[in-house]
Write a structure and sequence with these properties.
Strand content: 35-45%
Structural class: alpha+beta
Number of helices: 4
Order of helices and strands: HHHHEEEE
Strand order of the largest sheet: 1-2-3-4
Shape: globular
Length: 164
């Protein structure tokens, strides 16, 4: 019997199909395991970015994303601005897209987070943010990994949202 177009069937949902393809390519990948690692990576990346720690960022980011982050850090340095940053926590984290193309896995995650962030000039004037209030932010990041690689780490390949 043919399927009706309006039948809700998660087996045909693109996200479900993407996660299933990832599990076939790399059997140890589960959504929860991936999200745990993604949360750790997110916190490491936003903290390193706020500190201007290029050495910590370099192995976690694609060349294109690293270049963008490096430009922002360089602009802050040139303006003699510093960032005060405290990561408060996650409100919500979910996979919004997953795909596998030629053994390259890509997973896009929506991070609902809270942090305190303020950028100050060399004179101590706040030029962006607020050093005393918690900000709620939603970032959508895409991570990629060659499923044939021995390195189990994923690389951040795209971002959208607010960085500290």
């Amino acid at each position: 019997m043919p399927r009706r177009a309006d039948t809700a069937d998660t087996a045909y949902d693109p996200l479900t199909q993407g996660i299933a393809a990832l599990r076939l390519a790399a059997r140890r990948i589960t959504a929860e395991h991936f999200l745990n690692g993604a949360r750790q990576a997110y916190e490491m990346i936003v903290t390193a970015f706020a500190k201007g720690d290029r050495a910590a960022l370099k192995p976690l980011l694609s060349e294109e994303v690293y270049h963008t982050f490096d430009q922002v850090i360089a602009a802050r340095e040139s303006a003699k601005e510093t960032v005060t940053f405290t990561f408060v926590g996650f409100k919500d984290t979910k996979i919004v897209e997953a795909s596998l193309t030629n053994r390259i896995a890509e997973v896009t995650v929506s991070f609902g987070t809270q942090f305190i962030s303020a950028t100050t000039s060399e004179t101590g004037t706040v030029v962006e943010g607020d050093a005393k209030s918690v900000r709620e932010v939603t970032d959508v990041w895409s991570f990629s990994r060659d499923t044939r690689a021995r390195d189990p780490n994923w690389t951040l390949v795209a971002t959208s949202g607010d960085l500290p």
